[in-house]
Specification:
single chain; 422 residues; alpha+beta; five-stranded antiparallel sheet; 14 helices
């Protein structure tokens, strides 16, 4: 499953009528001792096809039978699913997905038209829309662009059962004011677990940051827009406090030790330091994006659009700031930009955030940045980077440096943990 060449060869053996040239493993979700999911792109007869495989432990053999018994749709490669029985592995070919079960309906033109007619009664122009995949995480979420010949577009986001329940009211927010722009909801299907949102034009900030000549002052606008989001007051958001963060980080530290023996002690020590630091910062709660980084931002001429609100919650707003900075560090580890550029971008973002009137404590930002860096440490393995272990080590080192910077520059002392609304 992790060897793209072996994966392609196995498919070629089972589908001899197709010219399967190669496979690229693009994403892995591994739960040691439970299951492993590997998402591949397969080049067959000159076209790329999304294929994912999920392997189970012997005790869960019944899940394999259950997965194979579910309905499936034919694909460009022929069957919708394959069973590798001796490996307890189910292979699904897009648009077949064992958890996003209506994806195959959305992927077929005739059934898609029927689904959109029911979900979008006020938008008949979109009923006959073509579907172009934008992002796909098997068993979790599919994001696609709906487009009709006249140029009208929308975004459709489809989820697994648990994912659809989790997003709750995230896509029911009002249109934002000020510099912030949010996608307007157009419709939804409870039965088939998808939402349709207004299409927003703009330049993806993640792409802009990697381009030469990027003006760091653009990040001041992003800081203003983030502050506007933090000032909003949607109802029904779940609370995400430091205890939730620490619980997730413990699982991450365990995964690091399993994936990269030799890093477990460093990860465990860093976890303790982050946990201690989180306990020392004051409790400030407000609306947060929950997964805020450059790919979630579109730069527009007069506004800044923020997308992917699935993880919105009620938590510490500076956690969003820390997560954004941690992703800048993550890109730097990949080779996109120097540490000096990260500092420049950090300062510009915080300048805009402060000018909007939102309070900022630099030492709190550092704590949240270190926590986010620890959370991102397994990402090089999940993304199947050739130097994934080296990149994991460097992310841990960046997190330690960030905490050290906080300690040396601001000092570490007990801070009264008062609870305030941002």
């Amino acid at each position: 499953m992790l060897d793209a060449e072996a994966f392609a060869q196995r498919l070629a053996n089972e589908l001899p009528g197709l010219d399967i040239q190669k496979a690229e493993c693009r994403y892995v979700r591994y739960k040691p001792g439970t299951n492993c999911l590997a998402a591949h792109r397969v080049l067959a007869s000159g076209e790329w096809q999304d294929v994912y495989a999920k392997a189970y432990r012997p005790a869960d053999a019944h899940k394999v039978s259950k997965a194979m018994a579910r309905a499936q749709a034919p694909t460009g490669l022929g069957p919708g699913k394959l069973l590798w029985a001796e490996l307890l592995t189910v292979v699904c070919l897009y648009p077949n997905d064992n958890q996003i079960r209506s994806l195959r309906r959305l992927g077929e033109a005739t059934t898609r038209a029927r689904l959109l007619r029911k979900a979008l009664p006020a938008h008949p122009d979109l009923w006959s829309a073509e579907l172009r995949p934008l992002a796909y995480k098997p068993d979790r979420r599919f994001v696609g662009q709906l487009r009709v010949p006249n140029g009208d577009m929308a975004v459709v986001r489809q989820y697994s059962r648990s994912g659809f329940t989790r997003i709750g009211r995230a896509h029911r927010l009002p249109v934002a004011n000020g510099p912030l722009r949010l996608s307007r909801p157009l419709g939804r299907s409870e039965r088939h677990r998808f939402v349709v949102l207004e299409w927003l034009e703009g330049r993806v900030l993640g792409d802009a940051l990697r381009a030469s000549g990027f003006d760091a002052r653009e990040l001041k606008r992003v800081g203003w827009a983030l502050a506007e989001l933090h000032r909003s007051s949607p109802v029904g958001l779940s609370e995400r406090g430091s205890k939730d963060a620490v619980k997730g980080l413990r699982a991450v530290a365990e995964a690091i030790g399993f994936l990269a023996p030799g890093l477990e002690d460093g990860a465990s020590k860093l976890l303790g330091q982050v946990e201690s630091a989180l306990s020392e910062i004051p409790i400030v709660m407000g609306t947060i994006h929950g997964d805020f980084y450059a790919k979630q931002v579109l730069l527009q001429e007069k506004s800044v659009a923020v997308i992917d609100l699935d993880s919105m919650a009620f938590g510490d707003p500076l956690a969003d700031v820390g997560n954004f900075i941690a992703h800048l560090e993550r890109d730097s580890v990949r080779g996109y930009g120097s540490s000096d550029r990260v500092d420049t971008y950090r300062c510009a973002l915080l300048e805009g955030y402060r000018e909007s009137g939102m309070p900022v404590r630099d030492e709190v930002v550092d704590v949240h940045t270190a926590a986010a860096l620890l959370r991102l440490t397994p990402d090089p393995f999940r993304s199947r980077e050739s130097s994934w272990r080296e990149h994991m080590e460097r992310l841990l080192a960046r997190a330690r440096t960030t905490l050290l910077h906080r300690s040396s520059r601001f000092g570490v002392s007990s801070v009264p943990r008062t609870r305030a609304r941002a």
